[in-house]
Design brief:
With about 160 residues, the chain is of the alpha+beta class. The protein has three helices and ten strands; from the N terminus they run E-E-E-E-E-H-E-E-H-E-E-E-H. The two termini are about 25 Å apart.
Length: about 160
């Protein structure tokens, strides 16, 4: 499909708008397409009876098809921020590593978990065990050091590499 025949994208605002009038009340020319999904995490829209994720379509509009096995990730973790500067191409495993802190992680720090004995913290990074710490500050510092060694972006996930 040639997205540019139907859609207009503003990379500064991240808004994807309709280029042509289509059937339906919310498809006026120039109006933002789609709606926020029920979980509030992403924007989607329907075109020719098929649902699309807005961020994926934006990537294809600007950069061409997404290669097999690759994902489009939001650098800041906000799935509604579809500015081009906030989107990057990564692998599925890279995308999974970039997720926000798990709901069952009570420390509030990605990769830092309470140890089973309740007196310390286990630290992991990139699927590897880093160590055990009795102090939360030292555990967080160890996680940050491991992130730097593994090439993680300081704000969210790995550094942007088109081939990652």
């Amino acid at each position: 499909m040639r997205w540019a025949d139907y859609l207009i994208y503003d990379p500064e605002t991240g808004v994807l708008s309709s280029r042509v009038k289509r059937p339906g009340p919310q498809t006026a020319v120039g109006k933002e397409v789609g709606s926020v999904k029920h979980d509030g995490r992403y924007r989607t829209f329907v075109l020719f009876h098929k649902r699309y994720y807005t961020h994926r379509v934006i990537w294809e509009l600007v950069n061409g098809p997404i290669p097999d096995g690759m994902c489009i990730d939001h650098i800041d973790g906000n799935g509604l921020n579809n500015r081009l500067s906030n989107l990057w191409l990564t692998t599925l495993s890279g995308n999974q590593r970039n997720r926000r802190v798990s709901k069952n992680n009570r420390t509030g720090i990605t990769g830092v978990f309470h140890h089973g004995n309740g007196k310390g913290f286990n630290v992991t990074c990139a699927g590897r065990y880093i160590g055990y710490f009795t102090d939360l500050t030292k555990a967080a510092a160890a996680r940050k050091a491991a992130e730097a060694i593994n090439g993680y972006h300081p704000n969210h996930g790995r550094k942007h590499h088109a081939s990652s």
